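Hi C.,

You asked whether I'd gotten around to modeling the 312-residue construct. I have! Everything is below, sequence then structure, no commentary in between.
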Amino acid sequence: MCLVAVERWLAGALTVSVLMGTTLACTSTTERTEAGGDPSAAIDVGFADAYPLPFGLEHVEGTTSIGRRAVYEDATVIYGGQPGSLRILRAAYRVDGKDPLGVFRDWVDQLDRVGLGEVTVRAGQGARSPWLQAQGLGSTKDISGLGNTADLELWTADDTPVLFVRLALSAPDAVAGAVEDDAGTPDPPEPVVDEAVRSGGDVLFTEGDDVVHLPARTRSLTATFPTVRGMEGTTSVIAAEDGAATVRDLLDEALVLHSGGEVSAPVTTEIDGATVIEASFFIGGGGWSLTVVAVQGPDDPAATLYVDSGPG
């Protein structure tokens, strides 16, 4: 482990600083890959086509899972001045049905089960936008569900479209609202990502002048798409032989780039038989952030990681 990262494994979020005059002996992922070779190509990515979903949601015909979906708790939310929690779903799919827009809307139609006040479907705007996006917030008629949010994005790609799903629910059974959908049937935009498979040492994402690479013993499951919930940033899904080690490697590289960044140390939970690891990195003052969620079930060939970057 890099010396700069040693302190961060103390409990909780903290700021890592480097004393003046200290020399950091730290090898980057790229250097390790070049020195010893990267066996990423041997990673088995034979995940199941579909995984059971929470909140009463069902697998939608015309989609194939990209890795395992992640379900986990975020216990850091403050709701009405009191500690609260969200249960979060992250999932990604190849949309291989004949009607991608219809498949997307089938997914949206399920959201009336999860206590969203209103869901708005709109077409992407601009060259680096999704084909369709649906966003929802908690119902103002039921205060228990005010923390509920949803974001679904359908992106064009070289092969088949990709659907990202993110739900965060404080009260899944809150009063449901309506779907507002005036998006029509927009033509698919030109893909803005390169779907070539990447492995350890290849670029994962860039933020400004900073470049973060895929760690050793990983490979991409999706391209790096240029958005995070309507803000500037990126979303990627990757597979890893060792989810915990990959989370550490991503944080290590971020700390090498910015030793004064704030790290939320990895938190491991077991939910529905799967191991989930969450961690994040943050640079304030106009910097950027990194959020990583790794998940692996007992029968999965590898860990699935959801990697988001965005504004600090």
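If it helps when you're writing up: The helical segments are 29-36, 100-109, 243-257.

Thanks,
B.
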